[in-house]
Write a structure and sequence with these properties.
With 72 residues, the protein is mainly alpha-helical. The chain has a domain of 36 residues. Helices cover 89% and strands 0% of the residues.
Amino acid sequence: MGQIGIWQIVIVAVVVVLLFGRGKISDLMGDVAKGINSFKKGLNEDDSKVAKTIDQKPSETVSQAKDQSTTS
Protein backbone atom coordinates (compact mmCIF):
# COMPACT_ATOMS: atom_id res chain seq x y z
CA MET A 1 0.00 0.00 0.00
CA GLY A 2 2.83 2.41 0.83
CA GLN A 3 4.99 1.52 -2.18
CA ILE A 4 5.05 3.40 -5.44
CA GLY A 5 4.50 1.08 -8.36
CA ILE A 6 5.64 1.33 -11.96
CA TRP A 7 2.13 2.22 -13.11
CA GLN A 8 1.93 5.22 -10.81
CA ILE A 9 5.27 6.49 -12.13
CA VAL A 10 4.09 6.01 -15.73
CA ILE A 11 0.84 7.89 -15.05
CA VAL A 12 2.68 10.80 -13.42
CA ALA A 13 5.17 10.92 -16.32
CA VAL A 14 2.34 11.01 -18.89
CA VAL A 15 0.55 13.79 -17.01
CA VAL A 16 3.77 15.84 -16.80
CA VAL A 17 4.42 15.42 -20.53
CA LEU A 18 0.83 16.40 -21.34
CA LEU A 19 1.00 19.50 -19.15
CA PHE A 20 4.42 20.80 -20.13
CA GLY A 21 5.10 19.18 -23.49
CA ARG A 22 8.29 17.44 -24.57
CA GLY A 23 9.97 20.62 -25.80
CA LYS A 24 9.54 22.44 -22.50
CA ILE A 25 10.94 19.49 -20.54
CA SER A 26 13.99 19.15 -22.80
CA ASP A 27 14.65 22.91 -22.52
CA LEU A 28 14.44 22.63 -18.75
CA MET A 29 16.88 19.71 -18.68
CA GLY A 30 19.27 21.64 -20.93
CA ASP A 31 19.17 24.58 -18.52
CA VAL A 32 19.84 22.26 -15.59
CA ALA A 33 22.84 20.76 -17.42
CA LYS A 34 24.24 24.24 -18.16
CA GLY A 35 23.88 25.16 -14.51
CA ILE A 36 25.72 22.04 -13.39
CA ASN A 37 28.52 22.68 -15.89
CA SER A 38 28.94 26.29 -14.74
CA PHE A 39 28.99 25.15 -11.12
CA LYS A 40 31.75 22.62 -11.87
CA LYS A 41 33.68 25.24 -13.83
CA GLY A 42 33.43 27.64 -10.90
CA LEU A 43 34.72 25.00 -8.52
CA ASN A 44 37.69 24.27 -10.79
CA GLU A 45 38.52 27.99 -11.03
CA ASP A 46 38.43 28.32 -7.24
CA ASP A 47 40.72 25.30 -6.89
CA SER A 48 43.22 26.78 -9.35
CA LYS A 49 43.22 30.10 -7.44
CA VAL A 50 43.90 28.25 -4.18
CA ALA A 51 46.70 26.26 -5.82
CA LYS A 52 48.31 29.47 -7.14
CA THR A 53 48.14 31.04 -3.69
CA ILE A 54 49.70 27.97 -2.08
CA ASP A 55 52.51 27.90 -4.66
CA GLN A 56 53.46 31.52 -3.98
CA LYS A 57 56.06 32.44 -1.41
CA PRO A 58 54.59 33.84 1.81
CA SER A 59 56.29 37.20 1.23
CA GLU A 60 54.62 37.53 -2.19
CA THR A 61 51.20 36.86 -0.70
CA VAL A 62 51.71 39.41 2.10
CA SER A 63 52.95 42.07 -0.32
CA GLN A 64 49.95 41.46 -2.61
CA ALA A 65 47.58 41.81 0.35
CA LYS A 66 49.23 45.09 1.35
CA ASP A 67 48.97 46.37 -2.22
CA GLN A 68 45.29 45.51 -2.37
CA SER A 69 44.53 47.16 0.97
CA THR A 70 46.26 50.41 -0.02
CA THR A 71 44.48 50.60 -3.41
CA SER A 72 41.04 49.98 -1.89
